[in-house]
């Protein structure tokens, strides 16, 4: 029997200009959102995934989108049989009884994003490109449209170059040109491509001045130092000294209801801080940070990450989907379908004006208080970065070599 492949891609692009809101209103919204959790039902999964990626690349940059990976697996679970579905959900920290609420959470998130106005550049959506020669289950198509507002396109996968162009053009348009040529290789076994995208472009609530950016030392290791453009601004920032895991956290708000958390481990404590990462820790930093006058030095940088998640997810309990035991009968009634490859790519850029970040996950399926004294804080050695919006964790990473 001829083998067929379904390419399933989840695309995440971060980067947004929200309407301006007061800091007091931002804090009110932040507190009201606490309790929903950073990633509903997937508390351990996110940080276990981070540790798995970090252990595969010791002393290197790490950057990925938890939401991108989770949404990818969530959409995939719509087309799985009971055994495979249970394993995916369990890996995400969910039970079958929680599945509907999980999908509805993302459905609500997409609706909220689509209703934002006032000049926001914030969008979230999905698309299905299917070959008319292969019958896709109506229930799967219906769920994708209802829960993930998926666009659907009938695509002639026999014309591979035209198909690649159609899909890549769609991705480039939806991400405002931040991700181009996402799909580089298709072959005659491909019958479907599934895309989920988010576009989010954020400006700092108070920008850094480029006149204060100068070349300074960044200590990659105790023995290796490089020169990086270091931004500087003295201002009030949200600040936490977390002595329990030996780190300093500075939270910088974007315009709107999003922020970046820069986490600076104490000397020699990177591994301790990484092991201490948890939803509880991040929520604690979000809710307990207090304003303090800081003389902040932060590198201007751009990093990226590329990961073969089919090699990582089995370590987290999600493995059948990549084997002959996979049950994707909810996608098509063709037998012996499995997920042969899952690629995640991400990039982030931080500069004086704000942040642009992007990530893509690809899945290939194969048949078969008072102002204190100013405190100087320099992010001049490896640190962690988390980006959240309304307490939803969007990106997480480790910056070892800013470029």
TrEMBL record:
Residues 47-402 form the Serpin domain. The keyword Signal applies. GO terms for cellular component: acrosomal membrane; external side of plasma membrane; extracellular exosome; platelet alpha granule; platelet dense tubular network; protein C inhibitor-coagulation factor V complex; protein C inhibitor-coagulation factor Xa complex; protein C inhibitor-coagulation factor XI complex. PROSITE patterns: SERPIN. Residues 1-17 form the signal peptide. Keywords: Signal. It holds the Pfam family Serpin. This is Serine (or cysteine) peptidase inhibitor, clade A, member 5. InterPro entries: Serpin_CS, Serpin_dom, Serpin_fam, Serpin_sf, Serpin_sf_1, Serpin_sf_2. Belongs to the serpin family. One of its GO terms (biological process) is seminal clot liquefaction. PANTHER family: PLASMA SERINE PROTEASE INHIBITOR, SERINE PROTEASE INHIBITOR, SERPIN. One of its GO terms (molecular function) is retinoic acid binding.
């Amino acid at each position: 029997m001829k083998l067929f492949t379904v390419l399933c891609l989840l695309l995440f692009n971060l980067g947004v200009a929200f309407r301006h809101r007061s800091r007091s209103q931002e804090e009110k919204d932040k507190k009201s959102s606490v309790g929903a959790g950073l990633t509903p039902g997937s508390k351990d999964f996110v940080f276990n995934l981070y540790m798995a990626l970090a252990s595969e690349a010791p002393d290197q940059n790490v950057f990925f989108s938890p939401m991108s990976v989770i949404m990818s697996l969530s959409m995939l679970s719509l087309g799985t049989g009971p055994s495979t579905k249970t394993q995916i959900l369990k890996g995400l920290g969910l039970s079958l009884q929680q599945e509907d609420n999980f999908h509805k959470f993302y459905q609500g998130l997409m609706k909220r994003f689509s209703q934002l106005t006032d000049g926001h550049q914030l969008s979230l959506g999905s698309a299905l490109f299917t070959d008319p020669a292969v019958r896709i289950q109506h229930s799967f198509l219906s769920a994708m449209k209802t829960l993930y507002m998926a666009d659907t396109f009938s695509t002639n996968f026999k014309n591979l170059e035209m198909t690649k162009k159609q899909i890549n053009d769609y991705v480039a348009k939806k991400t405002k040109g931040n991700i181009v040529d996402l799909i580089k290789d298709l072959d005659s076994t491909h019958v479907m491509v599934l895309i989920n995208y988010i576009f989010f472009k954020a400006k700092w609530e108070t920008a850094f001045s480029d006149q204060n950016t100068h070349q300074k030392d960044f200590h990659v290791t105790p023995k290796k130092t490089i020169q990086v453009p270091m931004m500087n601004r003295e201002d009030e920032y949200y600040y936490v000294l977390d002595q329990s895991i030996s780190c300093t956290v500075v939270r910088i708000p974007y315009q709107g209801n999003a922020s970046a958390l820069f986490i600076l481990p104490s000397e020699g404590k990177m591994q301790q801080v990484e092991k201490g990462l948890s939803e509880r820790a991040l929520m604690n930093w979000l809710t307990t940070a207090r304003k303090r006058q800081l003389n902040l030095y932060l590198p201007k940088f751009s990093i990226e990450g590329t990961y073969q998640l089919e090699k990582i997810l089995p370590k987290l309990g999600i493995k059948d989907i990549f084997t002959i035991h996979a049950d994707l009968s909810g996608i098509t009634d063709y037998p012996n379908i499995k997920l042969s490859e899952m690629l995640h790519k991400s990039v982030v850029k931080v500069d004086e004006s704000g942040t642009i970040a992007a990530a893509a996950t690809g899945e290939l399926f194969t048949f078969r208080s008072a102002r204190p004294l100013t405190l100087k804080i320099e992010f001049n050695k490896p640190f962690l970065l988390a980006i959240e919006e309304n307490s939803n964790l969007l990106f997480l990473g480790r910056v070892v070599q800013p470029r």
